[in-house]
Amino acid sequence: MSNIETLVKNLVEKHGKTRNSLMPVLQGVVKEERYLSEDAMIIVAKELDLSAAEVYGTASFYTFLDTVPRGKNIVRICKTISCHMKGKDEIIEALENAMKIKVGETTHDNKFTLLTANCLGWCHKGPVMLVNDVVFPELTPEKALEVIQDYVKNSK
Fold first, then answer.
1. How far is CA 130 from CA 41, 147, 155, in A?
2. 4 with 43: CB under 8 angstroms?
3. What residues contact residue 28 under an 8 Å CB cut-off, 6+ apart?
4. What is the phi-psi region of residue 100: left when phi exceeds 0, alpha when psi lies from -120 to 50, beta otherwise?
5. Which of 15, 40, 101, 137 is deepest in the core (most CB within 10 A)?
């Protein structure tokens, strides 16, 4: 049995074998593997007795369920109008220049993926950046770069 099969079986055992278990199982796979491979989605479909199309449809609908490999650290910049008005474009530009990638890309060393996201729920504290599961509100380009540098230092 492959690692992904074991992971999915353990997640299904934990969350149950019903349609309602699909999201927590997919989230568990992403947490461990950093994305949902085609193999993982097929195994989830078999384990939950769902069609592969239903699993893929769910996975591709939700922004935080990545269906392509991502970097170790996923950096998401809120792209709502409130964050836009507070300077999210300058944050994105600073990060793109520092990481030498564009939004949607991953650094050559696979340490960072830069993405935008619809509302992160912090409109009153924008612009906002999410790195993995940690929120960084009230950003400036300088603060955003400091956050990324801290992740670089702490990943060694």
1. 26, 10, 17
2. yes
3. 7, 11, 14, 15
4. left
5. 40
**pLDDT value, residue 45:** 96
Nearest-5° angle of CA 112, CA 133, CA 95?
Answer: 35
Burial class (CB in 10 A: 0-12, 13-18, 19+), 153: exposed
Report the side by side order of strands in the sheet with 73-78.
112-117, 73-78, 129-131, 134-136
pTM here? 0.80
Compute φ and ψ for 100, nearest 5 degrees: 60, 40
- How sure is the predictor about 64, in pLDDT bands with cuts at 50, 70 and 90? confident
pLDDT value of position 55? 95
